[in-house]
Amino acid sequence: MTGKDVESAALSLSPRARARLAARLLESLEKPRGKGILDLWADEAERRYKAYKQGHMTAIPAEEVFREARAKLR
Questions:
Q1: Given Cys at both, which of 1, 45, 58, 60 links 5, Cβ 3.0 to 4.6 Å?
Q2: Which of 67, 20, 47 is nearest to 39 (CA)?
Q3: Cβ atoms within 10 A of the Cβ of 10, count?
Q4: What is the pTM of this model?
């Protein structure tokens, strides 16, 4: 199976299955001494929170975020 075959197969998965696969692939790229994916997400969350507190970005109500996410998973 070629890389193109793997890519095609992966893209035919459901959004949820692709997200799971993407997370597993990202985890497999972590270096033992580097930051893990959870640390990187924590850094990103902190960056976004600071930007929000400084008025550089606005918040979106959770209900709206979840409604949009559910619609994309259908």
A1: 1
A2: 47
A3: 13
A4: 0.45
35-69 burial string, b = 16+ CB within 10 Å, else e?
eeeeeeeeeeeeeeeeeeeeeeeeeeeeeeeeeee
Using left for φ > 0, alpha for ψ between -120 and 50, and beta otherwise, residue 55 falls in: left
Residues constituting the chain: 74
Tens of pLDDT, residue by residue over 15-30, are: 999 999 999 888 887 6
Q: Which two tokens stand for residue 2?
A: 């070629």
Query: DSSP readout, 23-51?
Result: HHHHHHH--TTS--HHHHHHHHHHHHHHH
DSSP state of 13: S
Q: Residue type for 48, please?
A: R
